[in-house]
Design goal:
alpha/beta, 6-stranded parallel β-sheet, 10 strands
Length: 533
């Protein structure tokens, strides 16, 4: 550690881990719901977080440390030139809606107009290249950027065909390396889901560390002597960090935590639900849906949306700064208590979905900025996971427990009455593809078909659709997405097996729409120790 953060004058360390992910929602349709998902996340989460980290780095470079996972599907969207060119018109549409409001509402929404302009200016200055912004922070050591499974596949339900798990992981690693010019050492396991033996696949792919929910560490064999306050290492050589619930509950819980404060922005009251459909249609928006234009505060929990008061930005920012101090004080006391009872410097790992900060909790990035800038005042050393392991701590050898951070802590959120039908469908497709990869394809067209089939398989495996089906939101969209990718997969398989019936027009269309993982490699799905003849 450096200077004021030597081991002698800190109570312990805090590692905040953010998981940034969106499913592959690229769609060749302007003003689509999928387009809104991405652009709202860029506007409310990714740009504000970058601004917060950069601002803190300028003031407090040694203690501006965060870990962030950027999923391969999200990176492919951020890296897409067509999407980058569409964002300005999306911003303009929202500005137009706000400028057309009656005077009282327009005045209340002035902070939103300023915010749209500020974020668009940031976008313009970097020519829409947010990835380069992340790359710079990664190279400086302020960020530790992890990868994730290629399409956020829920790995425990893919385990019947281990090659499909390898396909998810190796495709992600190759994609990450292609974008950041360095291989990732860490991975965010989708939903923090782990099963026995996964560590061997991770290690063989070059992954050296990841994060589990607390019980994935606490139920390890043998039981870790330091609980979740120090990482463990599996026999295969992968380090596992455990989520500390005490460090996360005040942030992620809208009911019991900070985001539910009455002065913060109300998430559910959105102008898109209140404007007449005719007005939306004039701007090319075909149905009522959230526009990301919210200018009311939570007010009181039991007040209807119609009774919400106008949002006051300064009031909310002051509260976010206050909550950051409250959070840091609590972590400081927690670390002091832990330090008194043991001979080691404890580590608190606080993982969150990145989209919580800014999208769900509008003031979240400002909260993060205050954490980064003020942590040293509370004798807390901020770290990221890579920096912690570089110090070569002595890790206890343990076998982590199967687990997830989903509801119930295990796998039932992804295997239940609402979504279990997906499992045999993607298992059958995965098994067929693994067998297909054993054959020798020596012509360009067959390889092209096989590569696209791999993309469709990966896209069908995304856990996002299972999550939506279980949650009961936009279920038709989720079902349609799974069925679309499986239909395309099986049609491509048929073409591969029947060379005379290749539909080039169909192939070209889906290659354009599902334009992801350009450096895909079917060797990732080939069974080990299998040689082609």
């Amino acid at each position: 550690m450096n200077g004021q953060y030597s081991k002698n004058n800190v109570s312990g360390q805090l590692a905040i881990v953010l998981h940034a992910h969106l499913p592959y929602v690229r769609k060749n349709e302007k003003n689509s719901l999928e387009e809104d998902w991405l652009f709202q996340a860029i506007l409310e989460c990714y740009i504000p977080l970058l601004q917060s980290i950069e601002s803190s780095k300028n003031e407090n470079p040694e203690n501006t440390k965060l870990t962030i996972s950027l999923s391969p599907t999200l990176l492919s969207l951020l890296n897409n030139k067509q999407i980058q060119e569409t964002f300005p018109s999306w911003i303009k549409t929202r500005n137009d809606f706000l400028n057309e409001l009656p005077l009282e509402e327009k005045n209340a929404a002035a902070f939103l107009i300023n915010n749209l302009n500020d974020k668009y200016l940031y976008w313009q200055k970097c020519s829409g290249n947010l990835i380069e912004k992340f790359r710079v922070l990664n190279k400086s050591g302020n960020l530790d950027i992890l990868t994730c499974a290629a399409t956020h596949g829920y790995l425990p339900i893919l385990r019947e065909n281990p090659e499909t798990v390898k396909g998810q992981i190796n495709t992600a690693i190759r994609s990450h390396e292609n974008i950041f010019e360095t291989k990732p050492l860490g991975i965010w396991l989708p939903e923090c889901a782990y099963y026995e033996g996964l560590d061997e696949i991770l290690f063989n792919s070059g992954i050296r560390y990841t994060i589990l929910d607390g019980h994935g560490i606490l139920n390890s064999t043998p039981r870790p002597r330091y609980g979740v306050y120090a990482p463990i290492c599996s026999k295969k050589g992968v380090a596992f960090f455990g989520r500390d619930s005490e460090s996360t509950l005040p942030v992620w819980s809208a009911k019991d935590g900070f985001p539910g404060d009455k002065v913060y922005r109300e998430f559910h009251k959105d102008l898109g639900w209140e404007l007449p459909l005719s007005k939306l249609q004039k701007k090319g928006i075909s149905s009522k849906r959230p526009l990301g234009l919210k200018f009311h505060k939570i007010t009181e929990e039991n007040i209807s949306l119609g009774g919400k008061e106008f949002y006051l930005e300064n009031e909310a920012k002051n509260k976010a700064a206050e909550h950051a101090d409250t959070y840091l004080l609590a972590r400081s006391k927690q670390l002091e208590k832990l330090t008194l009872s043991s001979s080691f410097k404890p580590l608190l790992v606080a993982p969150f979905d990145a989209e919580l900060f800014g999208h769900w909790w509008y003031e979240g990035p400002f909260f993060i900025e205050n954490i980064l800038k003020n942590s040293s005042k509370y004798s807390i050393k901020l770290t990221n996971l890579k920096e912690f392991l570089v110090q070569k701590p002595n890790l206890q050898i343990c076998d982590p427990s199967p687990s997830s951070w989903g509801q119930g802590g295990y796998h039932n959120y992804w295997i239940n009455d609402a979504n279990a039908w997906i499992v045999p469908e993607i298992t059958k497709a995965g098994s067929t593809f693994v067998d297909l990869c054993l054959e020798n394809f020596n012509n360009d067209l067959s390889l092209r078909l096989l590569n696209q089939a791999a993309r469709e398989l990966l896209l069908s495996e995304s856990s996002d659709w299972s999550f939506i089906l279980r949650a009961g939101t936009t279920t038709e969209l989720a079902k349609e997405r799974i069925e679309r990718h499986l239909f395309r997969f099986w049609k491509l398989v048929e073409m591969i097996k029947n060379h005379s019936n290749v539909n080039l027009k169909f192939l070209e269309e889906i290659e354009e729409e599902d334009k992801v993982f350009q450096n895909i490699n079917i060797d990732d799905w080939r069974k080990k120790n299998t040689s082609l003849t």
